[in-house]
Amino acid sequence: MFLRAEDLHNAFLGDSVVLGNIRQGPKGPSCEVLEITGRATTAVSGTIVDEGYGEELHPDAAIRFNVKIDDYAHCGAKLGDKVQTEITRLPHSSRFIAKVIKRYGLSDCASICADAIIDANGVHTEFPEAARKEAKAIGSKPITEQDLAGREDYRSWPICTIDSASARDLDDAISVVRTENGYRLGVHIADVSYYVRPGSALDDEAKQRATSVYLPDRVVPMLPEEISNGVCSLNAGTDKLTFSGIMDLDAQGNMLHYEFHKSIIDSKVRGVYDEVNQIFDGSADEALLKKYAPVLESLTAGRELAGLLKKKAYANGNFDIDSSESEFVLDENNRCIDVLPRHSGPSEQMIEQLMIAANQAAAKFGKEKKLPFVYRVHENPDPDRVDSLKDLLVAIGLNPTCLSHTADVTAKNFAQVMEQAAGTPKEKVVSHQLLRTMAKARYDTKPLGHFGLALEDYCHFTSPIRRYPDTSIHRIMSAYLSGESKEIIDRKYTEFAAESAKHSSEREICAMNSERSADDCFSAEYMAQHLGEEYEGIISGVTMRGVFVQLANTVEGFVPVAAFTDKNFEFDGQVSQVDSATREHLTIGDTMRVKSVAADVSSGRIDFAPAGYDL
User: Fold this and answer.
1) Domain of residue 58, residue span
2) 10 domain-assigned
3) For 61-75, what is the mean pLDDT?
4) What's the pTM?
């Protein structure tokens, strides 16, 4: 709803408000702020510009006008700088003024813009002194006999980690052996909760951060390096304390039995996805085969088991969604020099399936033991969103019959939609629309199920180095396994689990916003080096003002309809721009050739023009 300046009554962007005096006008509904129930921060980042009115802030936030810079609160910032400001309203006026409180550097550098993005999302980059001291003390301690008390010894097992070549926080390892009835899967997770104790400075900071944040040029970790890359990283050839889930599965991938133990392991190989993929496709050389010899049978069995689990998941209604994730190639100065689509090979898919199995077993454990717990939940999509999806499918020529029972839609129904689009230019767009239709996954203390994975029970158990919910349930499960009574566990952890679920869900959103905004800036930095070049892309979105086009490398830009100087396109309200004279369509899923014409690193905005048109 539209709010006139005089109807804001000192409310600011992001404030929570009660609205009243709602009225319908020719341009839509408008209203008035009756009460401010919650204040947002007035810190706003942006770029200093001069568009003929002196130095102003061009905000990154959804403020649709520039704000005058306070001459007396400047911090030495110059034109073109990325800054953080405090915005206040001038006395007895509807105008605002921006006081610069932090200068980052030139706004045409994505890495500098990322600094502002993580500040805007409240991401902590420095650890408190007390947490650093604790981390150093823990990181320098050797494993003692006391640490091994009550632990299962799996050091002789064919265990390995598999991660990207650049990963340093190796928090999960696997072992798979064939059995008479099928397979025995071991998923061995860094025992973070053993080192990070309740009430410690380390725990307080990890709880506040709740998640690691992954940007193209850096990782902002949940735990200091002495923990994440040191004592808790499951480095090969080193004894490590772990929390192991041991699962027996039959030849169809059905889980027959599971149990959890505190353990000690010695990973035999530091596996790398690309190397394991070479082993799987038969292209590995002798040196690679020699490196992986201690775990080769385990990897072969693991791949077989993962294939069974994936087949079973598909039968239950699970489906693959193309999330169009990007991989950024940076030079020595952290400037983006290439953008590539992120691919998932056989080894990545194997690890994904084995981790899902462990997460499922942990959730079953929490549910069956009636423990206070933190579940990963993904509720059914809102019926109104499903109706919108059906309209879109009809508009792009697909059959939405499988979604006829809107209120009771299942993952299998979504899988049927994906089957229709598979192998066509519409596949990416349909995948994107399914993601938009589904509810946001979050954490909860109730086992509400996971729609996307088509599972009744699910949690996050396998990444305690980078996610606090995993650490939380490790702590609760450890208490149960140590023999603490149900009464004591309920008293100690019921409120803790609720707080962890709520706060972790909130911080996950901030982390995702940071990651997506930074990705946009790095994409724009790359495209700024390729202005004037032409590309083939797919129309990924349509609005009243124009269309979004996604390139094969995942970069997305906007084409305004005004760029078609000889056309008269009008939005059909659904998925197309239609020329009123020729009936030519620009529809979601259509291919379109475009020219790169502008890229603003600071905002992450990329502008295209239709190929053959000069702007």
Assistant:
1) 5-120
2) yes
3) 82
4) 0.91
